Structure formats: C-alpha cells, structure tokens
C-alpha cells in the first residue's frame, strides 16, 4: 500500500515513519510544510536507507489544493494519516490564525481531495484536548461532548466534526483517533518533557504553570504509533478510538521525576503564571480500542521517561539544532 503521511517531520509523524518502515512493508510519502516544528534532520537516516525506494519526501502545505491532488495521483495513494497540524496549546492562545488554517482548512482540503480520489482509509490524528477538562473523577469516553478550551483544541474539534460529516454524508472511510499526551524522542522543546530536560541540562529554571497540580495522562510515542497502525489494519470506518497511557501524573511530579533521572536539584523548579483556561485533567478510557483493535499501552511511564532522557542525552546534535529555532524567544516571553 502507498500511505501518505502528513506532518511526518514533526514529533509523532517522525516516530510513526520509523515505526512503519520497521514494522510493515508499506511505501510512505511524507508531506510536510517544515514549520518551526518540522525537522528534516529527524529523517536523515530514513532518507539514506529508504529514500526513493520505500520513502518519499514532498515539502508543502496540506492546504495547497493542487499539490495534494498531484501527490494523491502521482503516488497512487491508498491511505492517509493526517498528523500535520499546529500542535502547541500555548501558541494557539497567543496567535490562533495558523491553527485555523492548517488544522481546519488543511484537514478539509485533505478530506475533500481524498474523497474524490477514493482513498481507502483516512486516519485523522486528534487529541483528548477536544473534550476540554475533567475534574478529579472519571475518564473521557468517545461520546463525551466536545468542549475545547483553547483555540488549538477548538481547531482539532472542528476537524473532527468535518471528518464525522464526511463519514455520514459521503460514507467516506475516515477514522478519528484521540490520544493523550505523548512523550519520547524527537519532541520539539516547547512541550513540557523536552523543555524540562533542555532547561535542566543547562541548570536553567524549569517553569511550572500555576501550582503544578494539573494532570495529564502520559503515553510513550511508540504506543501511539502502534495504535494508529492498528487503525490502518483493522479500524472501523466512522469510528473514534482513544489511546491513553494509563499514566496520570501531576505536572509537578513529572518535572520532579525528570530532574531525578537527570540528577538535578528540585530547586530549579520555578512557579510561573498559569496558562489561561488551563485544563485541569485529561484521562482516557481506551476500552473501545482495546476491544476492537487489541490496543494496550506497553511502555510504563518511568521506563519511558528514562528512554526519552537517554535519547536526548545521546542526541546532542539534534538538541542543539532545535535549540536554535524560535522556541526560546517565544517561551521566554511566556514565562515573564
Ligand atoms: P508537531 O508540532 O511536532 O509536528 C507537526 C508537523 O506538522 C510538523 O512537522 C510541521 O511542519 C507539520 N505541519 C504543520 N502545519 C502543516 C501544514 N499546513 N502542512 C503540512 N505540514 C504541516 O506535532 P506532534 O506533536 O507531532 O503532533 C502531531 C499530531 O498529533 C497533531 O495533529 C496533534 O494535534 C496530534 N496529537 C499530538 C499529541 C501530543 O501529545 N503531541 C497528542 C494527541 C494528538
Ligand atoms: O493531550 C494531548 C495534547 O498534549 C496534544 O493534543 C498537544 O498537541 C500537546 O501539545 C499536549 O498538550 P498540553 O498542553 O497538555 O502539553 P504541554 O507539554 O504544553 O503541557 C503539558 C502540561 O504541562 C500542561 O498542563 C501545561 C504544563 N506546562 C507546560 C509547559 C510547556 C508547564 O507547567 N510548564 C511548561 O513549561
């Protein structure tokens, strides 16, 4: 099969490309605009080993109608996994425009052209943030109302609704996956885990928003990749599947764990102003994915954190490369 992967130079897309080249014999076409979060260097070894054989890179925007049409046609695409998106909640609060463009218009463009091209399966990679926030009890289920609290969450929820409408109106074979917080190799250091690592490595303060009591359900990125591949193999068109890590932790505890693995002092922790509309807690009921797909997260949080930190320690060149990107200016302004 020929699979179009959008956003393959980002964090999860990169991990998915490695996963799929290793675990399947599909051919992969990666369409990525290379925003600040996209990094072509993530895939240098893929390009060397598989480039022009099982792996093809196309630089471009999912909103570009003629480019997407050309790719669907020239590569005779069978299935699509749409990772391409602006993905950072803080950034969406400061400037939502690009989130609306890529996450909604981009998804619509892919859906409409895929429908005309008679794509066999379309996976929309979505997020638990579409549900808003949980109190201390309960889990998100697939039938929870959509109640996003950030422009990022709203843009992802909008794309999910477009997907739903394409299934209902056109019988288009789309599947929505909603996953909790990923961590692992290649994550851009605007997100909590790599940001904590990077700043602690330089003995700089590590910012925790509010009192640090917000809770996220952490999933190691390869578990998410496995879940998406299960959807490609046996996901039911029209379904929504949840993936979670069974690993709920308060942010403050996540930061402390990272500092402990690195042998750094907790004195680096600095409480800063809270994120506006900060969701208190995310936690996923993934029993449908377990029943229908056989999904279970495999990597425990402590093990995953060690794998992640060791990866960052071994890949200094990658770390130094992303550090020079725009994240530092943006983050510094946020903490003030
Ligand atoms: P990321 O920001 O690391 O990567 C996004 C990638 O998409 C980048 O390579 C970027 O260049 C590309 N991109 C952005 N806009 C584009 C456009 N218009 N056209 C083509 N390429 C474009 O994001 P990520 O963390 O890897 O997330 C990937 C997907 O998974 C997103 O859709 C996100 O909403 C979803 N998701 C992420 C998480 C998480 O914890 N990171 C959890 C659940 C769902
Ligand atoms: O839940 C899935 C979502 O997880 C994805 O859809 C998003 O793409 C992804 O960015 C992530 O969203 P969060 O906003 O939860 O991730 P982030 O890493 O930005 O923050 C995790 C938690 O840590 C959150 O409660 C905010 C807090 N935080 C974050 C940063 C960057 C801090 O306390 N300090 C920080 O410096």
Note the run of SSEs as H and E: EHEHEHEHHEHEEHEEHEEHEHHHH
Report the CATH topology name. Rossmann fold
Question: What's the assembly state of these chains?
Answer: single chain
The gross shape turns out to be globular
Overview of this protein structure:
The chain has 336 residues and is α/β, with parallel strands linked by helices. It has one domain: Rossmann fold (3-Layer(aba) Sandwich). 45% of the residues lie in helices and 17% in strands. The chain is built from 13 helices and twelve strands. The protein has helices spanning 11-23, 44-50, 65-74, 89-94, 97-117, 151-170, 192-201, 221-234, 251-262, 287-293, 301-314, 316-323, 327-335; strands spanning 2-6, 27-32, 55-59, 79-82, 121-127, 174-179, 181-183, 206-209, 215-220, 240-243, 248-250, 269-272. A seven-stranded parallel β-sheet has the order 3-2-1-4-5-6-10, with helices on both faces. A three-stranded mixed β-sheet has the order 7-9-11. The protein has a two-stranded parallel sheet with strand order 8-12. α1 links the parallel β1 (2-6) and β2. α3 runs parallel beside α5 (97-117), α7 (192-201) packs parallel to α9 and α9 packs across α11. The longest helix is centred in the N-terminal third of the chain and has 21 residues, at 97-117. The mean pLDDT is 96. Residues 6-7, 9-13, 31-35, 37-38, 61-63, 83-87, 102, 106, 125, 127, 156, 179, 181-182, 188 line the site of nicotinamide-adenine-dinucleotide (NAD). Nicotinamide-adenine-dinucleotide binds next to α1, β2, α5, β5 and β7.
